[in-house]
Amino acid sequence: xxxxxxxxxxxxxxxxxxxxxxxxxxxxxxxxxxxxxxxxxxxxxxxxxxxxxxxxxxxxxxxxxxxxxxxxxxxxxxxxxxxxxxxxxxxxxxxxxxxxxxxxxxxxxxxxxxxxxxxxxxxxxxxxxxxxxxxxxxxxxxxxxxxxxxxxxxxxxxxxxxxxxxxxxxxxxxxxxxxxxxxxxxxxxxxxxxxxxxxxxxxxxxxxxxxxxxxxxxxxxxxxxxxxxxxxxxxxxxxxxxxxxxxxxxxxxxxxxxxxxxxxxxxxxxxxxxxxxxxxxxxxxxxxxxxxxxxxxxxxxxxxxxxxxxxxxxxxxxxxxxxxxxxxxxxxxxxxxxxxxxxxxxxxxxxxxxxxxxxxxxxxxxxxxxxxxxxxxxxxxxxxxxxxxxxxxxxxxxxxxxxxxxxxxxxxxxxxxxxxxxxxxxxxxxxxxxxxxxxxxxxxxxxxxxxxxxxxxxxxxxxxxxxxxxxxxxxxxxxxxxxxxxxxxxxxxxxxxxxxxxxxxxxxxxxxxxxxxxxxxxxxxxxxxxxxxxxxxxxxxxxxxxxxxxxxxxxxxxxxxxxxxxxxxxxxxxxxxxxxxxxxxxxxxxxxxxxxxxxxxxxxxxxxxxxxxxxxxxxxxxxxxxxxxxxxxxxxxxxxxxxxxxxxxxxxxxxxxxxxxxxxxxxxxxxxxxxxxxxxxxxxxxxxxxxxxxxxxxxxxxxxxxxxxxxxxxxxxxxxxxxxxxxxxxxxxxxxxxxxxxxxxxxxxxxxxxxxxx
Length: 758
Ligand code: ACM
Ligand code: ZN
Fold this sequence. Notes:
Immunoglobulin-like, binds zinc ion, 4 domains, disordered N terminus, single chain, Chitobiase, domain 2, TIM Barrel, 18 helices, binds acetamide, 758 residues, eight-stranded mixed sheet, alpha/beta, 29% strand, eight-stranded parallel β-barrel
């Protein structure tokens, strides 16, 4: 009965709107198919719908008129000609109420909470804080995208009651504007996108070895010198924001519920500053702004009081611009080499009773923290600040995994999680795709419940060494940041990747409106293998439900792609090329993998030495799976042995004649991977007596930073080749990393991909 009355009332309303007399059935979006991101904590479905058109009266008080107007303008920039605003009157029909109320019961005590109650007659947005109201407005802005009815010239909002609040209070994006510089316009675009997804922290990485991006009046050389670097062609690269830019940015962010946390790196990642003020370094320079990527040994001298004067002056001007409670001081990756060899630093250690350079770093950080605290601010730094002792009030951002964060939480420090495993947007989709970042949980699985509240949230980190321009930046940040936005806002019980993926597809037009050159969600396909009695099979796995896959062998006669349906038996050598398709269009690049068909394929391998758990490849089948390694040593084809020789035996199952045995070894000194010193191949009929034995020895050790693959081949010069059932390969490593390398004395790696028996 009630329903009938509502229906009649709506009919009257529709008629009174003077719409088309042949009223088509209204197409109301089902609550279950709403595209909201991040998904609200709770949505209770109602009956009917609210028609947002020019008949609607808005009610809100003067003090939140900005928010009231925002709601109206979010709906009516295209459709309404006469929005009615009424601050006093109340009405039961067709009204939109925006209410800031002390009495609003905030779920989970969240000051960010809001309630959006939509019925046939009213739309009511309620929150205790303006912050909460703004999140409610973003939900309305997203609803707008999906609910416009052309025939009605109105937004048809399904009746429902949304109660929403975030799981974590710190939902951030780190933007590195130092390795590559991105101007004010780019930052503002990112703030717009962050607002849309209820992200609330922009962590702005402002200083680095490669550039300083903020003016400090007391130290003008920070812009004249530190903001610029010379590339290998002698071109000047760089830039900096003006203080006006930065103030504008801060205000723009604040109006969008976003805090900008500036990061001023110390004591390391500071070479650009030292290029301008070398007197703050341990040996006085000269020092240049870095035009390379990595970790560099020039850091602020901890024994020099003028270092602290300088940093306090800098931080004073930083605090004038940035009102954030937290100031990020970096603290990561500070090599102690200069401090170890600096008399001033050593004297400081003696005077302060510090037992090593880690304690000196701790002294450095604590001294800076004292200054920030005196100025009413809190310090946050990377997890290295735990080393050598952490002051009680500092917060930690965990990046080298979650352990630092866990340790900090257990000692009651606030923690922001951004581990490399899930949150590094500079990593490729092969290691962190959308589903991976969506699977992230900032709470470590083994953290006791009593410490959960110390994990205040997470960030995705956009380091820009390999991100030269805005298009590139967009394609790395989006859509993965949106995945993290939902992880940090929505409780796991309300989250489901497939549903998120469905909703996300409908957000791409919005990103296009924002002129965001978003990238892919994943690489289209992953290749796995099955080792059956009948042979080796290649399985192509699509990484998203709505993809299809096609493949071809690039050396085949017929080069047409075939639709992938069933596992492909490995019966030929060649390069397999796989193309994923979405909606019939190519999705991502062609994925390529080299295969070799040989006599050892799928045979039994016995390991007398163990491969390392970090680089297993296909485990016991890796050396006989037919897959060879690429120049990317993380491609999962390489098996790594650390501090170990390789000693493996392949059982061919029966006596065979074969003419050659070969294997590839990887060489990349930067990652401590060295090609072997000696390789020996032996052949046996019974696995005990080895009647063939051949050795190759290599004396050159490559300490350069070049990546290469060394092929070692044994070839029989007899007509029938070798005869045997067992093939044993022993590979001697160079041993410890040699002198002249920064990791001299550490265990080295040996990397091998396949033992090919022809
Ligand atoms: C970092 O990635 N060095 C914090
Ligand atoms: Zn020093």
